[in-house]
Amino acid sequence: MQSICIFAGSKLGKHLEYQESANALGKLIANKGLRLIYGGSKTGLMGAVANAVLKEGGQVIGVMPKGLFSGETVHNGLSQLIEVESMHERKAKMSELADSYIALPGGLGTFEELFEVLCWAQIGIHQKPIGLLNVKGYYDPLIQLVTYSAEEGFSGDAHMGIIQTSNNPDQLLQKLETYSPPVMETKWKS
Q1: 50 within a domain of the structure (yes/no)
Q2: 167/134 Cα distance (integer angstroms)
């Protein structure tokens, strides 16, 4: 594993622990010599994790559609900023550059990015590790939803093995480093 794509909120959230965890994760990423790939914003948890990596001398690549430059306020201190035309192009480029994914707390955009890479893993487009930094149990409801989808027959039991979770950044990185993709059952049964 050489690079991690981070999905995270463009806001800091209500609790200081969210930002503290983003800072701790960024520091770990840099100290392990990993490259951060993310959406290119200087605001929120996105900016916090990027700033923590940069502060430790790590490499940060931001990918941002030109149309978001005014709304998300592009980070000007990155190792590299890649400009793209659309959100679809942004996600494709981030996935191309990344060996793994971590979702920090965030809103609808974070959920959308997370579920896309989960779906890609489910249908075999990639076998990259996917982690949830579950600060203050933020992702507990999402984990319950995915578990419920398996219980109700809409997902397979193996799909839960795609998601690595921890509230501890170091432990989550260890899980991603030792990840072995689950054997997926045939999705389309008759």
Answers
A1: yes
A2: 4
72-84: burial string, b at 16+ Cβ within 10 Å, e else: bbbbeebeebbeb
Residue 139, beta-bridge partner list:
none
CB atoms within 10 A of CB 155: 18
Tell me the whole-structure pTM to 2 decimals. Answer: 0.93
In a domain, 107, yes or no: yes
- Give the C-alpha separation, 82 to 60, whole Å: 11
Can you give the residue range of the structural domain that contains 13? 3-177
35-74 pLDDT tens trace = 999 999 999 999 999 999 999 999 999 999 887 655 558 8
Q: What is the domain-level CATH number for residue 39?
A: 3.40.50.450
Asked if the structure places residue 187 within a domain, the reply is no
Q: How many domains does the chain have?
A: 1
Q: Residue type at 51?
A: N
96 belongs to a structural domain: yes
Q: Is 102 exposed, middle or buried (0-12, 13-18, 19+ CB in 10 A)?
A: buried
**Euclidean distance between CA atoms 8 and 39, whole angstroms:** 9
Taking the C-alpha atoms of residue 6 and residue 156, their distance in angstroms, rounded to an integer, is 26
- Which residues, 6 or more positions from 9, have their beta carbon under 8 angstroms from its beta carbon? 18, 44, 45, 46, 104, 105, 106, 107, 110
